[in-house]
Structure formats: structure tokens, C-alpha cells
Amino acid sequence: MPAVTAATAAPAGAVAPPRGKKKFLILVAALLALVLVGGAGGLWILKKRAAAAAAAAAEDDVAAAEVAQAAAMHDPKGIPVYLPLDPFIVNLADKDVDRYAQIGITLELESPVFADQVKAYMPAVRNAILLILAQKSSKDLLGRTGKEELAQEIMREAVRPMGIEILAPEPVTAAKGEADKAAQDEVPARPKKAKKSAVRNPVQHVHFSSFIIQ
């Protein structure tokens, strides 16, 4: 009896695909898989780069805003103008002993225009400051409070020659406080009148560059 071979065992009409065509199909499938994997990786890289670019742009915007804010804070128009005066040497008002003060003063002004105006009135400005110093005793000027009060007085008197009147703060005493309280208790409260708008002082601060009392 003849032996049954694989060729004779195959069903009739079945045709086996050629070996070369099968390899070709496998190679195409592998290439497609590589293309799909590469495309997904490329898309992920593109998305990552876009996110990084957006974050960098946001940081640049924040940095630009900080620079603009710093520039606004350091606007040259807002920088104060300092006007140093020649040192003052004046006899103080001490009665028991002769004492004098040597004081260096620098005015902090709001604008260069007003600085020029102060320079034009400098003799009158210095005279006003000298009159203030001549009324002080060494006791008045030794403490911090005395120096701060002197600075406030100079701020008011330095602008007076230019026609600028700055009202001095009204001193508050215990007797005045009690009198005001008693008046409020006796008289019904009345609507308060609107206060007059305060005059702006172009002298912003008074700085002491030296302060010697002998």
C-alpha cells in the first residue's frame, strides 16, 4: 500500500501561499508597526515641546511684568530731589551757659522745579531756619523728639518765604482734652464741618547731615 505523504494529505483544491510572499507580508506588517510606534513617539515629543514652549512663554510674560513693575517703581520722575544747605552755626538759647549748635541740613524736595525756586529764595529760607534754631536750647535739641520737632518746624518755615502757609499741628494738652470732653457732654452733638483741604508741602523731609552741640 503506498505511503500517504503531506502533499497527498492536503485537501483537494487547497493552495499553499508561496514562501516569499509570506515573508513579504510579515515585513510589511513589521514596517507598519514601526511607523505607528514612531508616529506615536513623535506626537508625544511634539506635545512635550509645545508644553515646554508654553511654559517658557508664561515665564517670559511674568518676567516682563516684573521688569515693568520695577521700572514703574523706579520712575525717574518720582525720584526725590535733595538740596543740601550750607551748615548752620548758631548760638542757642541756653541761659546758664553759652552753647552753640553746628547743624547740617538737607532738604528733600518734590521736584527739580521747586528746587530751583528754593535756590532763588535761599537768603530768606536760611533766615527762617536760623530764627528757628536761635530759639532752641541745647535741652530742646539733645533728644530724638526735639530733633523731629525741629525738622517739622523747618519744613513749615522753609516754604513760608515763597508764600506757602503750612499750619502747625495743634498741641493736645490734658486740660484741653478735658475741656473738649466736658463741652461734648453739655452740648448736643452737631454735624462736623468739612475740614479745609491741607496745603501740600513741597518740602517732603528734612534730613540732618550733621548735628553738633557744644
How does this structure look, described?
This protein has 214 residues and is an alpha+beta fold. Among the domains are: 22-65; 81-167 and 202-213, Band 7 domain (Tetrahydropterin Synthase, Chain A, 2-Layer Sandwich). It has helices spanning 6-9, 19-73, 112-120, 122-134, 138-142, 144-158, 174-186, and strands spanning 81-84, 88-91, 100-109, 203-213. Strands 1, 2, 3 and 4 form a four-stranded antiparallel β-sheet that branches. It is rod-shaped, with a radius of gyration of 45 Å. The termini are far apart.
Which structural class matches the secondary elements? alpha+beta
Largest sheet: 4 strands, antiparallel
CATH class of the domain at 81-167 and 202-213: Alpha Beta
Share of helical residues: 40-55%
* Alpha carbon gyration radius: 45 Å
Mean pLDDT: 76
Count of helix runs: 7
Number of strands: 4
Q: Which blocks of ≥5 consecutive residues have pLDDT under 50?
A: 1-11, 191-197
CATH architecture of the domain at 81-167 and 202-213: 2-Layer Sandwich
Strand content: 5-15%
Order of helices and strands: HHEEEHHHHHE
List descriptors:
4-stranded antiparallel β-sheet; 14% strand; 214 residues; disordered N terminus; Tetrahydropterin Synthase, Chain A
Summarize the structure.
With 214 residues, the chain is an alpha+beta fold. Helices cover 53% and strands 14% of the residues.
Secondary structure elements and their pairing?
Layout: H1 6-9, H2 19-73, E1 81-84, E2 88-91, E3 100-109, H3 112-120, H4 122-134, H5 138-142, H6 144-158, H7 174-186, E4 203-213
Antiparallel strand pairs: 1-3, 2-3, 3-4
